Amino acid sequence: MTHSPDGKAYLVAHGASDGKDRRFGYNSWITGDEIYLLRVTPTIDNINDASKYEYFDGTGWTKDFNKIKPIAKWRDRMGCVTMTYNAPLKKYLMCVTDGMTTGRRFNTYILESDNISGPFRMVQYMQNFGEQGYFVNFPSKFISGDGMTLWLSYSGNFAGNWDGHKIEKNPPSSRYAWCLHQVQLLRPGDNRLTATEDDGK
């Protein structure tokens, strides 16, 4: 809540609004087409009361859930989502996992925006991240003072294997546990690649 512009708690969630002729598990815990934005004044009672929520409708806020509109959409390529505000850079970072058919390799990508409701642009697309990474996020308390060093948090590789394929550790140390990898952002024109990982957490 440190950087909330109005004292409200903001949430993102994924879903799909079209169920015709879709891939297996097109709308599940890890798959979808669209990302939605919600907000609520944070009290225990409010958070547990659906009538207290507001939904972004494309231009503003509404209490009518039926008027909700996605802030991002990509058919058969979205899923589990998180968003973090990088305060030093004044950027919103959105991590999205496309769970494919829910039990094989997953693809993850990072989007950025100057505004919580977008528009968003692609920063990095990571095919087969994990190879089965999910709940990917940048904890706000783990961002450096200049906003350039972050920790990527996720879990992964719950399936072990599928169809005779053994799920690999990509990046190394990815496993069915809490995984943390340090990320160093690069400035325009900086072609250095710097990253470290914590293999013991």
Low-confidence stretches: 194-201
* Domains (count): 1
For the biggest sheet, the summary is: 5 strands, antiparallel
* Overall number of strands: 15
The level of helicity is: under 10%
> H/E element string?
EEHEEEEEEEEEEEEE
What is the averaged pLDDT score?
92
First-last Cα distance? 26 Å
What would you call the structural class? mainly beta
Detailed description of the structure:
The chain has one helix at 44-47, and strands at residues 9-15, 32-40, 54-56, 61-62, 72-78, 81-86, 91-98, 107-113, 121-126, 133-137, 149-156, 161-162, 165-166, 179-184, 195-198. It is an all-beta fold and 201 residues long. The protein has one helix and 15 strands. The strands form four sheets. Strands 1, 2, 3, 4 and 5 form a five-stranded antiparallel sheet that branches. It has a four-stranded antiparallel sheet with strand order 6-7-8-9, with no helix packed on it. A four-stranded antiparallel sheet has the order 10-11-14-15, with no helix packed on it. The model is unreliable at 194-201 (pLDDT under 50). The protein is globular and about 50 Å long. It has one domain. The two termini are 26 Å apart.
